[in-house]
Amino acid sequence: MAHVAPPKYSNDIGAERIEIGVKEFQCIGAMPPFDHPHVYLDMGQDTHIVCPYCSTLYQYNEKLEPHETLPNGCAFSQPELVK
Fold first, then answer.
1. Domain extents for the chain?
2. Which of 68, 78, 72 shows the shortest CA–CA distance to 22?
3. Which residues pair with 4 in a beta bridge?
């Protein structure tokens, strides 16, 4: 069974709400080195959740892909490690 890490989102722009296309994810706060602990959040049956660290409201939007956000640019991607 392949394990896929949940997507990570950041809120450098200070948005009150970020729309995302998944219900399970990690919030990192701001971009490193100003990030908070990377907390795993699961909306379950709900369509929204608030990060307990930075108070960002995440809203599920079924029209978005996992790497898309509204506003744009809140999906976090780490550079791949070179072996």
1. 1-36+59-71
2. 68
3. none
| Nearest of 44, 43, 55, 45 to residue 17 by alpha carbon | 55
Q: Write out the two tokens for 58.
A: 């995440």
3 state DSSP class of 20: strand
The three-class DSSP label of residue 56 is coil
Rounded to whole angstroms, how far apart are CA atoms 47 and 66? 15
> Which residues pair with residue 24 across a beta bridge?
42
What percentage of the chain reaches a pLDDT higher than 70? 89
Q: Which of 65, 66, 69 is nearest to 17 (CA)?
A: 69
**Residue length of the chain:** 83
Q: What is the mean pLDDT of the chain?
A: 91
pLDDT tens digit sequence for 52-75? 999 999 999 999 999 999 999 999
